[in-house]
Amino acid sequence: MRRTFRRVLVLGVAAAVAAVPACSSSSDDSGGAADGGSKIEVFSWWTGPGEEDGLNAMIADFKAKNSGIEFINAAVSGGAGSNAKAILAGRLQAGDPPDSYQRHAGLELQDDIKASKVQDITYLYEQQGWKDVFPQGLVDKLTIDGKIYSVPVNIHRSNLLYSNPKVLSEAGIGAPPKTWTEFLGQAETLKSAGRIAISIGPVWTQKHLLENVLLGELGADRYERLWDGRLSWTSSEVLAALETYKKVLSYSDISAASADWQPALDKLIDGAAAYNVMGDWADAYLSGTKKLTLKQGYDVVASPGTDGVYNFLSDTFTLPVGAKNKAAAEKWLVECGSKAGQDAFNPKKGSIPARKDADRSLYKGYLAGALTEWQKPSTRIVGSLAHGVVANNAWNAEIDTALGLFARDGDVAKFAASVQKSWEATK
């Protein structure tokens, strides 16, 4: 697993270096930071259905406001940004950053800050009044050592369970499970009916499922203690939750895991699988790309054991140190944080706006409920592991390696010990 990752990273670096002349040129003074630039290169991993549609909508709004700026969409495909992050790492190492690049809110950006790869943009927050229109809890997550380095464009929810109502009905199952114990009972029924209980994709989707099994089994308080060392991964309650996760995987199609989250959801759509745990970007794929109707073609509820809890993540954009078109990049960040930009982006992306003053009439179906849930005072907010909120990149990489081994050997104690050891080494 580690060797494979390193090979991907090396290939990414090579690809990035080879692409330098096509992407930018250090001798291009006409596009430099000093005069504001006439172009901008924005780097993201939004290339799939729904997410690409949302990005294109925001780009269109940006172009309408900034007609003199050429927009270079440097998006790289790959679920959760796996490929994009490898290529980006090579570009940053080579001193060839894009003018703005995507990161998740939270500790995912910590390494870039320590390496002086991103600029403090607190001044933009003051100029645009963003601290007044973004929820305080989100601003807190974005603030590292008193400074802010990125602009959020959205809020996503990780802890969602998607289902195929027809499959459940044919199996005699009346409703999605409220607990993971109930899920395991339903999974046996589905297995007897010749159906996959839960479809799954590559390692990042397996980690996405892991965080939500842990959240459902441990509860919000103990889940949060996992990420700051107050609860050991080798404790009895965490080991029990990991045993539940192992059982859940045993009813999945992990031996034939899909290449990404969309094909994993396709198995739910065509009736091969009953359930899939994924974030709310999947709703845009199901309702938009696949034209399915909520409650008929598919259903979505909080993942087992997490009613009233919002396991959040947020996509953000940065201003890199050495951006060749700084003034244009600042205009892009203003677009990302604007009401118009967020309302153009989020309905298509399948997420809700980070701003509190969004046009609620634009958010239909699942998104209308999600917006209400996010803003409800009683909702408990926790952060996602798989999507960069609660763990830095180094620890996340170690968890990926351990999870890849766990998927093959199923050794709960070894996995827990490995994750605990890597937390100590990377904190």
Secondary-structure map:
Elements: H1 2-23, E1 39-43, H2 51-65, E2 70-73, H3 82-93, E3 100-104, H4 110-114, H5 122-128, H6 130-133, H7 136-142, E4 143-144, E5 147-148, E6 150-152, E7 156-157, E8 160-163, H8 165-170, H9 180-192, E9 196-198, H10 203-225, H11 236-250, H12 261-269, E10 273-277, H13 281-289, E11 299-302, E12 309-313, E13 315-318, H14 326-337, H15 339-349, H16 366-375, E14 380-383, H17 393-409, H18 412-426
Parallel strand pairs: 1-2, 1-3, 9-10, 12-14
Antiparallel strand pairs: 3-13, 4-5, 6-13, 7-12, 8-10, 8-11
Helix pairs in contact: 1-3, 2-15, 10-11, 10-17, 17-18
How would you describe this structure to a colleague?
The chain is of the alpha/beta class and 427 residues long. It has two domains: 2-155 and 316-363, D-Maltodextrin-Binding Protein, domain 2 (3-Layer(aba) Sandwich), CATH 3.40.190; 157-311 and 387-426, D-Maltodextrin-Binding Protein, domain 2. The protein has 18 helices and 14 strands. It has helices at 2-23, 51-65, 82-93, 110-114, 122-128, 130-133, 136-142, 165-170, 180-192, 203-225, 236-250, 261-269, 281-289, 326-337, 339-349, 366-375, 393-409, 412-426, and strands at 39-43, 70-73, 100-104, 143-144, 147-148, 150-152, 156-157, 160-163, 196-198, 273-277, 299-302, 309-313, 315-318, 380-383. Strands 2-1-3-13-6 form a five-stranded mixed sheet, with helices on one face. A four-stranded mixed sheet has the order 9-10-8-11. The protein has a three-stranded mixed sheet with strand order 7-12-14, with helices on both faces. Helix 2 packs antiparallel against helix 15, helix 10 (203-225) packs across helix 17 (393-409) and helix 17 (393-409) runs antiparallel to helix 18 (412-426).
